[in-house]
Write a structure and sequence with these properties.
Chain lengths: 397, 397
Amino acid sequence: MSVTIRNVRHRDGSLMDLFLEDGIIGRTGPGGSLPDGSEPSVDGAGYLLLPLFNDCHAHLDKTVMGMDWIVNDLPGSLAALAANERENRLALGADPYRQCARHIRASLACGTGGMRSHIDIDTTNGLAMMEGALAAREEYKDLFHLELVAFPQSGLVSRPGTVELVDRALALGADVVGGVDPSSMDRDSKGCLDAIFSLAQKHGKPVDIHLHEPAELGAYDMEEIITRTKALGMEGKVSISHAFCLGSHIAGLVPPLLEKLAEAGITIITCGQPQLVTFPHIQEVTAAGIRVCCGNDNIQDLWSHFGTPDMLQRACYISMKNSCRRDRDLEMVLDLCTRSGAQLLGLEPWEPVPGSPADFMLVRGVCHAQCVAQPPHDRMVFRHGRLYARNCTVAEA
Amino acid sequence: MSVTIRNVRHRDGSLMDLFLEDGIIGRTGPGGSLPDGSEPSVDGAGYLLLPLFNDCHAHLDKTVMGMDWIVNDLPGSLAALAANERENRLALGADPYRQCARHIRASLACGTGGMRSHIDIDTTNGLAMMEGALAAREEYKDLFHLELVAFPQSGLVSRPGTVELVDRALALGADVVGGVDPSSMDRDSKGCLDAIFSLAQKHGKPVDIHLHEPAELGAYDMEEIITRTKALGMEGKVSISHAFCLGSHIAGLVPPLLEKLAEAGITIITCGQPQLVTFPHIQEVTAAGIRVCCGNDNIQDLWSHFGTPDMLQRACYISMKNSCRRDRDLEMVLDLCTRSGAQLLGLEPWEPVPGSPADFMLVRGVCHAQCVAQPPHDRMVFRHGRLYARNCTVAEA
């Protein structure tokens, strides 16, 4: 099957045509230049031609999207919210496979082609969520590049049996060893981090740790992560998600951390939640030579009703959060949500040139800055050379 | 003209029918109960029946929406951004009347029926923006309730001639005396506040002051505003917009301010910008007995490309910003964006009962909490008993 797309807008502002054949960009040319004959043709309408998004911090198994409305009347503490989810999710009917699959389809429809998703592992529900996520990954493997993180949300060494569950998850196919707040969640920074890095070494897999801890406490656990990363030669294989301590206002706290993170080749993954008081400033972190990736985090779940699978909306939040007023700053955030994420996930960099996979988005807007600052639903998502979704809704086959 | 709307969702979750005649709700009944015969009829599709929004902090004259894209490559300081706008806005073709009118139409299309808009007044552009805003107000007076604030953004007493311009604006029809950061903008808190309150007394008009100043500096100017409000018997007639100092983390700073604000009947107007570090916490401020109203602030202008005229999206930002996870907290924010704003603007409280004006919205969602946390474009806006806009776009006549 071949498709001609006319008059899409290149990054440099010019209009171009694309000829897609067998899932590949076969030819390109200036807008209006490709011959007719190759039907069907799609009017690109001057939409911006963009690489697909990579959502580097998701929680596929948590969403309750598509289920009956569940009233949230819970106290706000993280411990209470985590406990509620752990104890009630399955009884409420949140089938892990079905919910992961829904989230994947919704993400694809918005233009996300790759994702790293944390999947809860705990002694209450065992590997039920990981098994659902693995099945959903298999179902969508031709359309969606998915890395799964074995994520002991309720604690690792503090809940006996959890290390063994994470070990089994990694053997079953989880790609990354997860973790959360070694000091404040497990109350045992050394024990927790030793267990995480030991599992990573055993399975030869990377690490991605949620670090919500503020200020000096976060800095302490960050230093412990950096030390192990370097000692084990895991430079380039460790990520820290959230890293709120990097937004600390304490004089002198952040610059040495940035220097050490850069040396250890650690990636920072940020989600730009509006409520945060301290958060890693993307301009500062990227300027230190540290890779920054972005994600939607949890959406529409038992924690909160907020969030969408749309990484363009997320790029807008992250831009606002970081006061990215200038066009070039908005373009940088779009790069973090696309190209930088592709690097983390080990995907080839994508360019709109002959020979590239015909996997891309067309988004309404006069320039990249506009589509980030004023994110529209109007877009077309192409996968394997076919129109997969239009306006964030999966197209009819 | 009469219209029957079937099966809209009342706040209590039940379905109801509405019969609109001569711009009034003539009859209501349970869903499906009203007789046919009264054509045309509209399928309410179980959409939520909501009062119109009141956007209590807008900047109609600033938006460049609908104009050719203007690249933002400006340094981030407020002074530089304000100076750029003041010196270049007219040369860039931002016609005040046209831009105010565009903003009004876009706001109406999203379901906003009332607004308080600050309008820049300065010695460079004189009353050009106020004259445009007054003309736009006149043009839309049957559809849109608009209060205009004479807003000396570039300084009041520090720029000779500005007091006289504000005086003339109030004589021409501006409704409210504005101001900004008496200490840090004018470098003369006493002189600035004396001038503001003197103009308010002379014209018998209320006051609304932008207060971005943080911590102790903001607290100082807030106390000075409170003192004048009480001394002049202006309780209930003074608002403070932004009031970032109310989010200060300094122990003991905020509670006495809240107590004094409540005593002086001062309204706090918040916009929930994601980038803010300190901001008034709406739960804390409302719990102190202080009226809180909400607004979109400036949208798509020479300061930044961000923002939309949609108050439902704003309600979502404000909810996220204030960690309103629970359904009841989300419902509270919706009230702030509708009913609380109506109080500030002196509009009658609206209820879906016979005799009420047929001015309301229908919004897709299973409950109020959902439409705030996951704001859809899918909505119908009725003005004077007619469908004015659908999905945030003005309907064909």
